[in-house]
Amino acid sequence: MISITKSLKDSVIDYCTHIGADPMLVQGAGGNVSWKDGETLWVKASGTWLADAARKEIFVPVDLTHLQRVIAAGDFNVSPMVFGGSNLRPSIETLLHVLMPHKVVVHLHAVEVLVCLVRCNSEAEISSLVGESLRWLSVGYFKPGADLAKAIHESMKQAPDVDVVFLKNHGVVVGGAGVEEVDAILKILTAVFNTPPRTGIGNNMNISRLDEMGKLGYRQTSNQEVNQLVRDQRLFERLKADWALYPDHVVFLGPKAFYFDCIDDFIASLLHAEYLPELVFVRDVGVFENENFNEAKKAQIKCYGDVLSRQADDEKLNPLTDEHIAQLLNWDAEKYRMSISPAKSGK
Which of 151, 208, 217, 249 has the highest Cβ tally under 10 A? Predict the structure, then answer.
């Protein structure tokens, strides 16, 4: 049976609209939020945008008691039972919200935290920065969904009262009695992990041949922070080794970066290309998008630039393996999310 605590629902929706407009916390259709109301878990629908919470139905009511029961029995491949005949599909990470006992649960790919979570020494850094100021645990990388839920479940057996779960190469989960409590924790985290981006590093852009890219159907991105990826030589080198850092990046931007030392190299590559890449990086010239590069993907490349620009030159990162990438790209749940998130606001 569905019941709605209107004041809680309104506060969650207002909060989602607020954080959904902040690219340092939410990128496009990324992240998910839930609240519990009796036997009902209201969770964000797959592919929807938190920024749309006030003007669209983005939450799905599912049977919380059913999910708790099957999880207790060790079944993490369960499909949530949706109340009310909604046509929306619950978030891929619905079980994550069930495992957290809190009234309100927020899972975000917050840039300041993600900067740490993609590093090889992330757990030691979390311990140093957060210490005992919050109740937290860290979980290694697992494919979102059943695998990740099972890993969190096992970890929470040793720490059932945590309010924060750090997910390596993925994001952070925060639980609280209400929106205010969650927001207070998030503010602590973003302050503790705050890292200023690199600025003013790189060569002057070579714009003499931009018209050639235009004839090929590409336009230079207007985001100068993203263009820094080809101006800053250290960031350009990271395109080769540190591309696939977290799930949403791979799902929306693909398994590898298309980077070239000059426009001539890119043009030559087209002779043998099976398809035209949507995103192209040309050293000292620019980052180029074709007409298929939509708002959801723009949000993800900005996030990637924000994460990389906050890494020291000698910082060792921990990219996803080829196996991890294959799992994400061959996953029907992620194909569904991509299919309904082709443009801004999940249209």
Answer: 249
Name 82's bridge partners.
62
Q: Are 47 and 60 a contacting pair, CB within 8 Å?
A: no
CA distances to 212, 216, 231, 293 from 278, in Å: 16, 12, 20, 6
Q: How much is the average pLDDT of 214-239?
A: 93
Cα–Cα distance, 308 to 288 (Å, whole number):
18
User: Is residue 52, in this structure, part of any structural domain at all?
Assistant: yes
Q: Which of 144, 193, 143 is nearest to 164 (CA)?
A: 193
Work out how many domains the chain is built from and give that number: 2
The residue type at 220: Q
241, 180: one domain: no
CA 208/CA 210 separation, integer angstroms: 6
In the predicted structure, residue 206 carries a pLDDT above the cut 80: no
d(CA 240, CA 127): 30
Tell me what pLDDT residue 337 has: 54
What is the rounded CA–CA span in Å between residue 97 and residue 46?
14
CA 246 vs. chain centroid, Å, equals 7
